[in-house]
Amino acid sequence: MRAKKVLLPEGVQDLLINDCRYRRHIEEKLMECFIQAGYMEVSSPTLEYYDLFSSDYLSFKRNKMFKLIDTDGEILVLRPDGTVPIVRMVSTKMKNFVYPLKLCYVENVFRIDEEQAGKKREFRQAGVELFGIPSHKGDAEVIITAIESLKNLGLQNFQIELGQAKLLRDILQRLNIDYEDKQDIGRYIEEKNFIELDRLVESLDIEIDVKEVLKALPRLFGQAEEVFADVKALPLKPYMLEAIEDLERVWQMVDDYGFGKYITLDLGMFTMMKYYSGIIFKGFTKDLGVVLLSGGRYDGMMKDFGMDIPATGFVFIVNKITKALKIQEKLMLKKKNHILLIQDNKRTWKREIVEGLRKKGNIVELCLLEDRHEILEYIKRRQIDEVFRMDQKGEIEIIEDWGEI
What we know:
This protein is α+β, with helices and mostly antiparallel strands and 405 residues long. The chain is 39% helix and 21% strand. The strands form three sheets. A nine-stranded mixed beta sheet has the order 1-5-6-12-11-10-7-9-8.
């Protein structure tokens, strides 16, 4: 037992000095962009009732959440997701706010994610949620905000993939086949497992035109103009065409804004998060083969909370953004001038001098050491830029030669 005092639980980590500096810088840049786009910051509690996340459509598996029992015997969880608590907040405390309602947040989420390298358990997320806009304008706005946020961080070589969850979901809902087969079709399309998808679809009693569309979906990805041309050549049902045209309107608005070069399409994009009801998207960078951000439309979730309000949003995974920026060497933070203020033996520090130096943007550290050699070692290891001495009159002088300390 004693040995575990110096160990960490699996899937969590300590953040040391530079990691904290990087994270704060990234989060401040993201929040700056969110707020400039009209989003307002909110925060939800780390602990929520288990019932909030137990709905079938949320796809949060019971064994993937961290559960505990409170003193009243109620089952609580460490929040496994950032969006659902915001929806709860809006439905219970913000019904009368002006709409569209634009909210943003930076919070930790906790879940057992075996697919993450290192089996992560704690994730830092920064996201936005837009309530009250049912049209493509809302989807385009959050995608534009995501792109502007990445540009504001200085990230390069990133790409946003757009998909349409409504397309495949509507197809599967209309098929009179087993639930397991529907799940397999969705998984094979998402994984682009052409062989297994073709085998399964051909074995099922499905209309020929629908079979053709299903088999084509994972193959329809790339530049928007080409994908739209290819999908419209398929024998689409009216409801399928409606979903495609909705996606096209979103892409067109983002392109008209000037961000078309960051967009590709993937009609095989599917998510097991059942609350997504329309446009979905993911963000990647060529330097890091993992998802940096994800989002989409989730109109149906609001109805589960008694509000018939459309909603869309996205979330950044902060630690992955940090890693991508490190790879691209874009985390060169500006270093403030660091001053060490020492004093003669008979003098204490003067508030006016310290405040004056700090107001000029300097880091001013009060020297707590007395031994000369310890002071010199501290200056070296902390990379102090300047050393000031306060004399007996309360005036300061810059020590040019640190050997005179």
